[in-house]
Design goal:
heterodimer; A: 257 residues; alpha/beta; 6-stranded mixed beta sheet; 5 helices; B: 414 residues; 7-stranded parallel beta sheet; 6-stranded parallel beta sheet; 14 helices; 44% helix
Amino acid sequence: MLNWDGPQSAAPRPAERLERELRYRAAAPLVATAALWCDLSHAPAAPEDVAPAGRALEVDPQADLTRDEDLALIRAGLLAEDGERVVTCFDTIERLGTFVPLVRLLTGLAEHDEATVVLSVPNDDVLPVDGDRGSVWGPGAFEELRRLLPAGAVLARQAALVGSVVLTGAGDAGRTLALSLDADDDAGAVATTTHLLAAFGPRADGLSVAAAAGTADVAAERAVTRRREARLEQAEAAVRTLTAEVEQLRAQARTSA
Amino acid sequence: MKVCFLVNDLELSGGVGIVVEHARRLGDHHGFDVTLALARPPTSAIWRYEQLAGVHVASLDEARELHFDVVVATWWETTFSLFRVPAKRYAYFVQSLEDRFYLADEPDRLGAAATLGLPVAFITEARWIAETLGQLRPDAPCYLVRNGIDKEIFGVRAALDVRNDGPLKILVEGNPTVWFKGVGTALAATSAMREPGHVTVVTALHDELGEDAPDRVVGPLTQREMAELYTDSDVVLKLSRVEGMFGPPLEGMHRGATCVVTPVTGHDEYVRHGWNGLVCDWDDVRGTARQLDLLARDRALLHFLRGNAVDTARRWPTTEQSSQMMALALRRIAEGPAPDPHAASLRVLDDLRAGVEQFRPMLLENRELHRKMGRVNRVLGMPPLSVAMRMRHRRSGRLAIRLVRGLLGRSRSG
């Protein structure tokens, strides 16, 4: 049987995987020279080529990042070894029921020069807000967070791109292409911002510019739009029919009265 | 961690409600030991804030017997008591630049402005205030903690009804006797509408609404009652002249109401013209009325704005998220260095000097007028005149005055 009525919205966003990898690539120069790297990101998915010079700290997947006790263990694990330490924390804060203990841990590590931290929060002003959330973020919330960070924090925004590519054959896959980036950096550009990033700690200035692109499933996006249009057209037609019937009944009522 | 919030009183106000909410949540969810200290003895009934249950309320004298990690002033007058309460650190929760509540010749204006020079850390609720404080006091730390919304009371509407007919339901709230709340202007705008509208005013002062009478007056209301009223309303009309960051349009957005507002400071924290509300001009009764007429006529626009209003609300922090930011800010203040008293003292002295120069001509003028009145009073005190002054208040005197006036009037016309 034909099942035409698919999702009303394209979920997850097609660019989500690519955006997640890019956050790791922005932190890659920091991670590459780290003796110890601790990844507190939600569902960690670092690209294979993002790796520390030393080792990655194993974090218990069941660790509760809202509990002081669990965070104390993470801190102890980080400080057990000397050398440069980097902590990445992507897509995490917004999912916690309370972010107070985690933010205190991260700012404390940075302020005491014990680790460089890179974290992200989403710009919910433009992104869909799903149910798996403890908090909502955007330019206002990021400003609140920024003022809590140690001095010298480096701030960055991750922006959505639109692009196009001309492919001439199967041999084009995996090619490295040079792109000229036409990106605004003014206040109005917040409309294109999907995520806000902050790096703080002794090597915060190591956060780097990064970009990535992939092909978009234009057909799938068109299918979602068409389903919505079809439902709207059908609903509007039903309303016109019902309105006509109501007018007819009113006219009959007036005549018989 | 022990924190004390200094409040003037616990009478009904949005600002006190915010402080009470923070106090409760810091205690319940973040392990803080919180005291609300009344900077002055209560003169009227304490408003029945739901959130007050379980919060320790103390007098100033009682608070002075304790020692806190941070004491926070919450209104400019509470700073007079701030340093009398023993604490490791002091902070000032600035909900608005309060000197703007007063007119230019009111001394409170100087007092409120001068308190921004104190050696404290600042906490504020709107980005424009944080930026202003950053310019005024680059030496002092300033934390931003936006006001959250209690979504158990003002829950975000899951489904928005379409309202294609009936009069436009307009909600106005505020104290009509407070000049910067703009209630009179709002009612004038609704009276100038051409399209049908139904206006509800929420205020405790039912008899102070002036000539432009609304359809209904209610209040004071609890927050839950307000939530029900917002649900029934199409638009919140808020024409304030002075605000830190107003809450009613945002509360209304949670319940499916759009808004028409002035471009008052803080409105841009969440209002976007043509997206989730409309922004009118200052002192533009006719223009505001035309915007209300537009919403009444164009129900597709009304639904568009209401839908985006709900979407905006969905993306606004809860009171719980706000209290997390407050907890982090207070801990930073407690653990950070104390602000430099020298820089603060310079600021206060500069303000004091400016105030002296501002009021000097007024006081000199007052003294000169007093001197002149002294001469006038001496003349009026002379026997013939003093007798005449006393006669004015007697019947025979008043008859004599009428007779003289009549004679004078005839002689002028003759």
